[in-house]
Amino acid sequence: MSDKGGKGGKSALKSPDGSAKLKGRKVQFDSEDMFDEKFETNGNGKSNGKDSGKGKGGKAGPAKKEPPQVLLKVEEELPENAKCLMNCEAAQILQGIQDHMVLLSKDPTIKIPSSFDRALQYANTGNFYTDPQSVRQVLESLKKQDVSDGEICVIANTGIDTTEKAFALMPSLKAKQIKVIEPLSAALTELTKLKESTIVLD
Amino acid sequence: MFFHIVLERNMQLHPRHFGRDLREKLVSKLMKDVEGTCSGRHGFVVAITGIENVGKGLIRDGTGFVTFPVKYQCVVFRPFKGEILEAVVSMVNKMGFFAEAGPVQIFVSNHLIPDDMEFQSGDMPNYTTSDGSVKIQKDSEVRLKIIGTRVDATEIFCIGTIKDDFLGVISDPGTTS
């Protein structure tokens, strides 16, 4: 302990509880400073007091500044040759790979990494549709209204069924609300028909 | 979010693998080397779905190894800021909770949990509303929004929020069991 102080024996007396380690460092925890600098954020989420679909109204402090909205900008961050996949499409591809894994590789040392299993499980959990092609067809029509691939995938992956939910969950979509609302409403109605009847959402 | 993408990698192969099975050996090595890895730009490489092209090999000076440029298609998983994910809660503590969506781990701080949800300690720590109608505990499914990401050499960590409209618990293991 006394070695840490750096000022001989006195430091041990000054910091019997080991607080010398923290000397000179002020640590604060609040909603503004809570993120590690390494985290890339452009805001800490909207906290307007309205919370989860099931929760009651929050008590967000009125004095707090409204943080900037986090917009989905998939296209800006990905290379051109990347194509977004909906969970239902990914589930189909990954399931196919798992089924044919033995045929694909004769090398017994190749093991399926744990990330594959977790990804497949996740894709299956967020898979509300039995026919990915139909879902893609329905949602592709929204591209004419400048709905991005990323937004299309979020719509499919979350299984949202109303335009209200879509606009609330994706602020980027809300900016195009006027021209999108009608085709989106029609698409969501189509998706509801395609949705697996076994899965009941909140 | 999942993506289908074409990537390229220079594969080094030992001369003992040269022969009729060279291509198969290359693909096997590629799968071993690439699947399950993680990069900041592309995220987790979940699975290789096809080989686009294997280029001409180049002998490395001083060694017998030959480098082949291989173009391959793969499925990757990468979380994005602003993305809505449905994740399974893996751990709850007074600082917040951790949830998993595929290979990605997301931390939701207690600052980003609705204010009317309070931490309850005990055998099964949880966040519960004052009327007890909504509970977040281990194995609960939550819909959250990613607000920050940090990429490590082997993992991607995210910060999420459930403090917004239509976010929060979508299935509670306590109610189904």
TrEMBL record, chain A:
Spans through the membrane: none
Gene Ontology MF term list: nucleotide binding
Residues covered by region (Disordered): 1-69
Subcellular localization(s) per the UniProt record: Nucleus
InterPro entries documented for this protein: HRDC-like_sf (IPR010997), RNA_pol_Rpb4/RPC9_core (IPR006590), Rpb4-like (IPR045222), Rpb4/RPC9 (IPR005574), Rpb4/RPC9_sf (IPR038324)
Domain (RNA polymerase Rpb4/RPC9 core): residue spans on this chain: 77-198
GO biological process, one term: siRNA processing
Entry keyword set: Nucleus
GO CC entries: nucleus; RNA polymerase complex
Family: Belongs to the eukaryotic RPB4 RNA polymerase subunit family.
Designated name of the protein: RNA polymerase Rpb4/RPC9, core, HRDC-like superfamily, Rpb4/RPC9 superfamily
Organism, as annotated: Helianthus annuus
Taxonomic classification: Eukaryota, Viridiplantae, Streptophyta, Embryophyta, Tracheophyta
Automatic annotation (TrEMBL), chain B:
Sorted UniProt keywords: DNA-directed RNA polymerase, Nucleotidyltransferase, Nucleus, Transcription, Transferase
All residue ranges annotated as the RNA polymerase Rpb7-like N-terminal domain in the record: 8-64
Regions annotated as coiled coil: none
GO terms under biological process: nuclear-transcribed mRNA catabolic process; positive regulation of nuclear-transcribed mRNA poly(A) tail shortening; positive regulation of translational initiation; transcription initiation at RNA polymerase II promoter
Function statement: DNA-dependent RNA polymerase which catalyzes the transcription of DNA into RNA using the four ribonucleoside triphosphates as substrates.
Record family assignment: Belongs to the eukaryotic RPB7/RPC8 RNA polymerase subunit family.
Name the record gives this protein: DNA-directed RNA polymerase subunit
Lineage: Eukaryota, Viridiplantae, Streptophyta, Embryophyta, Tracheophyta
